[in-house]
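SEQUENCE-TO-STRUCTURE ENTRY
===========================
What this section holds: a protein sequence and its matching fold, both as plain text.
Question of interest: how does this chain fold, as expressed in backbone structure tokens?
***
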Amino acid sequence: MTTRTLVSPATLARPRGKAAYWSVFTGTVLLFTLAFLFPVYWMVTGAVKSPDEVARTPPTVVPEQWHLSGYTDAWDLMQLPTHLWNTVVQATGAWLFQIVFCTAAAYALSRLRPVFGKVLLGGILATLMVPAQALVVPKYLTVADLGLLNDPLAIWLPAVANAFNLYLLKRFFDQLPRDVLEAAEIDGAGRLRTLWSIVLPMSRPVLGVVSIFALVAVWQDFLWPLMVFSDTDKQPISVALVQLSQNIPLTVLIAAMVIASIPMVAMFLVFQRHIIAGIGAGSTKG
């Protein structure tokens, strides 16, 4: 039996049909590419324009003169090295805490099967129904009582309570081949040895996806770091761009945004293969 498609194979076999098909296909791809990449191009080129040219109406698509000083001024005036380092520290710590504790909790719920495990999992998943804004005040009061304001722990500890990543890991662990885990038990491997030597190496795709989710969530977060970091020298880049934007030329601010977005774009380009593998990893039983 042949698979029915929008365009029949007989039509595609004709020169006119093939030309029409590839014309529509190429036009659609170019249209979507333009829709996604044009805002990036507009931001990058906006930083090299003069302030008058940026505010001009109608705008210029190609800069009349290229002023690279916007990027150097942004690097110095907005103290980007300090705030980028703060963001790296906060994002790395949140990622490490999530990998350790969410993985341990997901493995326990999936393989150790504790008493009332399903009830615990249901309670954890129920937190996904609570709006994030409703948790801001309780989290802030807890962090303030513990004396963690202006401390990276104020970012790391709340990041651990990520129900979505925990459930993602648990579902992946549920689908691991039971034969491999039983063979490890027969060979004398304990629970921790099985987790370290068997489960984690097999879970690289989903660990990659969880890692990217954890890093991106901290990197782009604004409200929570704004509340817990009153010290300007300890603020991440997302907060610093807003706090230091006063009396800064628009071109310098745009250049700072471009620099701040480079790490996340580079990380996606490097690890996009792992993202796709992790998304498809849970689609079939192992």
Notes: Residues 282-286 have pLDDT under 50 and may be disordered. The chain has 15 helices and no strands.
